[in-house]
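Reply to dn_fold:

You asked what the input looked like. This is it:
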Amino acid sequence: MKLALAFLLASSSVSAYAPAFAARKSSTALNSAVADSKTYTFAKSEEIFKEAQDLMPGGVSSPVRAFKSVGGNPVVFDKVKGAYAWDVDGNKYIDYVGTWGPAILGHADDDVIAAITETMQKGTSFGAPCPLENDLAKAVIAAVPSVEMVRFTNSGTEACMGMIRLVRAFTGREKIIKFEGCYHGHADSFLVQAGSGVATLGLPDSPGVPKAATQATMCAEYNNLESVKKIFEDNKDEIAAIILEPVVGNSGFIKPDESFLKGLRQMADENGALLVFDEVMTGFRVAYGGAQEYFGVTPDVTTMGKVIGGGLPVGAYGGRKDIMQMVAPAGPMYQAGTLSGNPLAMRAGIETLKKLSAPGAHKELERKSKKLVDGIVAAAKKHGHAICGDQAGGMFGWYFTEGPVKNFQDATKADPAKFGKWHRMMLERGVYLAPSMYEAGFMSMVHTDEDIDKTIAIADEVLSKL
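and this is what came back:
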């Protein structure tokens, strides 16, 4: 997952949601209720994690879960439901990680679970075409402006691996432009750090990545069109694509300036390059049609994941039909996957998108995200902390710095020690936040105003003690 990797290396219907839509409870009682909140203990989590460290590298299956950048050991989950998670010690949390984004309906949505259970009776994997692939493909194509044809994969990383091969095959060029702080999976070509933040040749960001694998990866500064222009000037007719997270969720949370995405679209067109939005995180989350709908800029190719699998492993890449017809077996660009188009993941995605297409769903997600961010920012400022924050749809974030944060270099100015203390104290009081200051937060359709009020009240307490 993401930019935290670089940090670690360095150190059925709308009515189902009516209660969430309608909840408008006052925070006054909650503020007093949590003034001296009881803190959790984690004995069973500690025991299980200690054993896990002898069984798996770092005791986890993905680095950021180890809590290395925030201190202390991770809590071990037992179950999740709705907006909440419970650990093996029986502690209950208001969860704003949402399995890193997919749980936009809330965990273990009853209709999604019922649909998966029904589909499972027919088998868990076919390795052959099934009608559910057509159904999900049609839903994605109808929703996402850039997508006329789609290929399903098993993860966001796999989708980005297919995408980079595709843009090179289509353009006949090798070099790509990515942005410092944007994460596109752990494939060699993308594990690149931009150094000082100015446009430069990439250097491998992880041991085991050959220098040759990153020599065609050029890094620019997010929200800086001049840095992109310079790369085009220095590499005339050599750039295959500009690739970015339209909203950066792997450096915390960074929105693009109004002119930035439009400028990239223009530069790609002028230079015969493709524009690629990595919407693994933002797809169906900031708007039903993703960030490209939210900001009104249409790329040539889009990568997706997380939400479109409804909580099961999935990824996808899609775009203009003339580009996608390069993909085997329609064309010569090879990419395959044993479990791609898995019927359980397809059905979970179909049911999830049905609910997300409800009128007003994303407007409500943004209202709740804004309420949370505004409340925490206000509490921090009340207690004298430097802080800034923002949101888009059901995605949000904040930094312990005055801001504004426009790129990764700005994000590094945030206070990591303060964030680590903040994270542990919030965790001990029942709020589960991403265990890295370089990760975005996620709102679900079932978080209530009461949940948000309680979170703000707990934050007020914690911030008074930081």
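The radius of gyration is 22 Å.
Hope that clears it up.
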